[in-house]
Amino acid sequence: MAETTAIPIAPEVTLLRGHVAPTGPLVAAIGRIAAQAPFRQLSTPGGGTMSVAMTNCGPWGWHSDRRGYRYVELDPLTGARWPPMPAPFARLAREAAALGGFPGFEPDACLVNRYVPGAQMGAHRDWDELDKRFPIVSVSIGLPAAFLWYGATRRGRPLVTLVEDGDVVVWGGGARAGFHGVRKLQAGEHPATGALRYNLTFRRAK
Ligand code: MD6
Ligand code: FE
Hints:
Strand content: 25-35%
Number of helices: 2
Number of strands: 13
Distance between the termini: 28 Å
Bound molecules: N-[(3-hydroxypyridin-2-yl)carbonyl]glycine, fe (iii) ion
Helix content: 10-25%
Low-confidence stretches: none
Order of helices and strands: EEHEEEHEEEEEEEE
Radius of gyration: 16 Å
Mean pLDDT: 97
């Protein structure tokens, strides 16, 4: 969308405010994905359970269990391939990446995250992908959340950015290794998603 404003959060971290409007079609597509590959709360190698529920679409899906983090071609829950990535998803990721300064992004994985009130994502980096030259594209849908950017180390006070329905955050290059997280989701109602927040995280896994 030509009218998108690109707001720098940190070097090579860009917020595209309101880039996706309306988000209703994305929510409908998430419903179709979840009908084939249901949302589930994954276990972590440390033995915990993530508060965010996840599923995937595209050739590769991100998975976590007691054995570690990795990308898998088959959904461990169903044994089937992940649902295909809808063409509009791939186009959105490519266009947003270019607006963020990273042209030529072709995602092969889309992690779909569902946040209920109280769900959160601690400081981490997205680091299970083969080629770190590709950026991360993160799309917010529904209830607003506080996106936390820690940068090179998980210590210290993060930069806090409110991410709302239709906002996209792109990071890559020197920021690709950046630590980030999401503060505990506050309860609310959103016309597109009700009491939920979704996040689509596009990656090039392989
Ligand atoms: C966000 N999400 O929800 C940012 N990373 O705005 C993430 O950074 C994230 O939701 C890895 C796995 C799931 C996520
Ligand atoms: Fe992440």
